[in-house]
Amino acid sequence: MLTIKKIKGLEILDSRGNPTVATFIELSSGVKASALVPSGASTGRHEAFELRDGGKRYQGLGVRQAIKNIENEIAKTIVNKKIDDLIDLDYTLCSLDGTVNKQRLGANAILGVSMAYARACAYHYRQPLFAFLRQVYGYNYKIRIPIPMMNILNGGKHADNGLSIQEFMIVPKQHTFAERLRAGAEIYHVLKKILKTKKLSTGLGDEGGFAPRLLNSEVALQLLVQAIKMSKYKLGKDIFLALDVAASEFFDGKNYNFENKKTSIEKLINIYKKWIDKYSLLAIEDGLAEDDWLGWQKLTKELGAKTLLVGDDLFVTNQERLQQGIDQKVANAILIKLNQIGTVTETMQTVIAAQKNNYKIIISHRSGETTDDFIADLAVAVSADYIKSGAPARSERLAKYNRLLKIEHAK
Ligand code: PGA
Ligand code: ZN
Predict the structure, then answer these.
(1) Atom of ligand 1 at shortest distance to CA of 367?
(2) Per-residue pLDDT of the chain in tens (411 residues, 90 and over written 9)
(3) What is the dihedral of CA 82, 85, 91, 97, to 10 degrees?
């Protein structure tokens, strides 16, 4: 039982220059820890509620109310009070909020407290965060370092280059994480050279990938293939490709407007089918919209044996939505984002349920990030299959990859 002596919040800026929540906790033992909360742009409709102030400051994106909630209501409930453990703290925070989607206190306020307490406890027990999390949630799988899915070409809501697909990722499958990161970085730099030679923009999107204006998504895939070949790696052997289609963004409630053309579900599935073989697609995330359950059933039936079909906006790290997916035989992998659900414990419960039902686990950053590397430890704690932390460039993306290097090195 570790009592909290003090808790503070601070409005800081994320990688996009928008406000986000920092939380500082001091335990009665004197141990101090902090946590920084990420923020998405192509957020799912069913995500937990991110509390923003509205009004004129920061185009309405201020988080002063979330900070107030941490320092007033939350502090009153948990400072100098009996807390059994992290699970107890998270249940207390959820019931204090009292709403289904944390809209009263804000998921950004609640998550900051949950993460900072987890980290403070790990420090207190002198354990790496991943080891502490394993202990709390009873994990005893063999420790392994996840395979990175690196978003090196950005489109959709993370860029303004007109591409329908949001993320074009490379998946280096080398033996060690250090080799995977090296391959990713080498390919990233070769891609930059190719873009320069073709007189295309080498400006970056939100997740550190390039964001050139291209004719269509297939051209983006071809550029990735070229960069892999020129870097002397083998597509389909050392390196695979993956897409985050983020299809909710081009679904208008009735039709999919893919590459500015009305496209039927059958046609979309056929495009994916062709690309899986042609471009060694290891995963397709959010290939259809977040509430298109019937479409997802078709997609899973047709392509589920060939590739990973990842639910992000579809599942929003929510155990109930995952259960609906399990019942309806939808998807075979889940994206896990702490701030989609709002506490460490609920995140872990969703991961555990997914693993029981043989869904692959991909721990993920958000497009708006900070230098907090919590998700690297989370990925190791649950023996995740993959981690998505953007391109191998820009410090908020590298914080996670570099933390994984350290964990691997210390093993
Ligand atoms: P977001 O994008 O953080 O903007 O939601 C990431 C993703 O869709 O995977
Ligand atoms: Zn996504």
Answers:
(1) 3
(2) 799 999 999 999 999 999 999 999 999 999 999 999 999 999 999 999 999 999 999 999 999 999 999 999 999 999 999 999 999 999 999 999 999 999 999 999 999 999 999 999 999 999 999 999 999 999 988 899 999 999 999 999 888 888 999 999 999 999 999 999 999 999 999 999 999 999 999 999 999 999 999 999 999 999 999 999 999 999 999 999 999 999 999 999 999 999 999 999 999 999 999 999 999 999 999 999 999 999 999 999 999 999 999 999 999 999 999 999 999 999 999 999 999 999 999 999 999 999 999 999 999 999 999 999 999 999 999 999 999 999 999 999 999 999 999 999 997
(3) 60
Instruction: Report how far ligand 1's centroid is from the alpha carbon of 244 (Å).
Output: 9
Q: Where are the alpha helices (DSSP H) in 49-168?
A: 64-69, 75-78, 86-97, 107-124, 129-136
Residue 364 Cα: closest atom of ligand 1: 9
Clarify whether 337 is annotated catalytic.
yes
Task: Tell me which residues have their CB within 5 A of the ion that is ligand 2.
Answer: 244, 285, 312
> Hey, where are the domains in the chain?
4-126, 147-410
End-to-end CA gap in the chain:
29
Q: Which fold has domain 4-126?
A: Enolase-like; domain 1 (3.30.390)
Which residues have C-beta atoms less than 6 Å from ligand 1?
A: 40-43, 244, 246, 312, 364, 366-367
Q: Where are the beta strands (DSSP E) in 315-408?
A: 333-336, 360-364, 386-388
Amino acid at 34: S
Rounded Cα gap, residues 105 and 73, in angstroms: 9
Assign domain 147-410 one CATH number from 1.10.10.10, 3.40.50.2300, 3.20.20.120, 2.130.10.10. 3.20.20.120
